[in-house]
Design brief:
The chain is built from nine helices and 13 strands. The protein is of the alpha/beta class. It has two domains: about 190 residues, NAD(P)-binding Rossmann-like Domain (Rossmann fold); about 90 residues, UDP-galactose 4-epimerase, domain 1 (Alpha-Beta Complex), CATH 3.90.25. The longest helix has 21 residues.
Length: about 300
């Protein structure tokens, strides 16, 4: 088989590319930041295309002789006109080209930001999309829009498609996010760190994400479906305690009741995500203990990187 991974130089896309190559698959990537893929150049089966999903000609060419598309490219533009032009417009280009090229499976890597503020817990795939209540309303609105477009193309054109949703991903080399970097820096300085009392979320290990995507690919049970993904749940106060321990820091942790929390918005809410549907339909059963161990290893690397910068 041959795969197209958009955003192949990004955090999730890069892992999907490596996972496919390690399984002996042929992979074409489409990304503007091809310099981020320099370490992978020369790998057998890898073709790197520099381009943008806004360009219809490039998208059509990128989908030639491809069996499946893994779409993970996203601009995160703060300007509404640009966000819809780049992300929604580019998504439509990919959907149209997928129909024209008779792509056998279109898979989109999305975010739980589409749910907005949780109305109930745990969050399952039936939870309404409430972008106006999201910590990032524009991002949530564009993601929610392309969810609907994916369903439309599946119903109208019969394009086999699947959407995966997760809250906060991490890999063996990196846990992304400015909030995390700021927490680590505070611990390294020995500063008092505030933590919400109950807030936290279900994190997703990239190894588990790749395994779920692999299990779904060309699996008829996944067509027309959306799946939440999660590896294990962690409270922010526990994560901060772990950072302080790994940094060997004298920082004091001040616990703040959730209703009085005035810190970073990302640390707000209880994002308990149900991945039961993926387990039942796709057989995806992450090992929480292995995922936790990987999380702690990667967090340790992040602490040392911030210490030595």
């Amino acid at each position: 088989m041959k795969f197209l991974v958009t955003g192949g130089a990004g955090f999730v896309g890069r892992h999907l590319v490596e996972s496919l190559l390690n399984r002996g698959q042929a992979v074409r990537t489409l990304d503007r930041a091809t310099s981020e893929l320099v370490e992978l150049k020369g790998r057998p089966g890898l073709e790197i295309v520099s381009g943008d999903v806004q360009d219809r000609e490039i998208v059509n060419a990128a989908l030639e002789n491809v069996d499946a598309v893994y779409h993970s490219a996203w601009s995160f533009s703060p300007a509404p006109a640009d966000a819809f032009k780049i992300d929604v417009g580019g998504y439509i280009n990919l959907l149209d080209a997928s129909v024209a090229n008779r792509i056998r499976h279109f898979i989109f890597l999305s975010s739980s930001v589409v749910y907005g503020e949780p109305a109930y817990r745990p969050l399952d795939e039936l939870h309404p999309h409430r972008p106006e209540k999201s910590r990032d309303p524009l991002h949530a609105l564009t993601k929610s829009t392309v969810h609907k477009l994916t369903s439309l193309y599946y119903a109208r054109h019969g394009l086999p498609s699947t959407v995966f949703i997760f809250w906060w991903g991490y890999g063996d080399r990196r846990i992304p996010g400015k909030t995390l970097r700021d927490l680590i820096d505070s611990a390294l300085k020995g500063e008092t760190i505030k933590a919400p009392e109950r807030a936290g979320g279900s994190v997703a290990y990239l190894v588990d994400i790749a395994a779920a995507v692999e299990a779904a690919t060309l699996n008829e049970k996944a067509y027309g479906q959306e799946f939440n993904l999660a590896s294990f749940y962690i409270r922010w106060r526990d994560l901060i305690e772990l950072i302080v321990r790994l940094a060997d820091s004298p920082s004091r942790i001040e616990i703040v009741p959730d209703e009085r929390w005035d810190g970073p918005g990302f640390l707000t809410g209880i994002w308990d995500i149900s991945a039961k549907k993926a387990e039942e339909l796709l057989g995806c059963r992450p090992d929480p203990e292995k995922s936790r161990q990987a999380f702690e290893r990667t967090l340790g690397l992040a602490v040392e990187a911030r210490r030595n910068r």
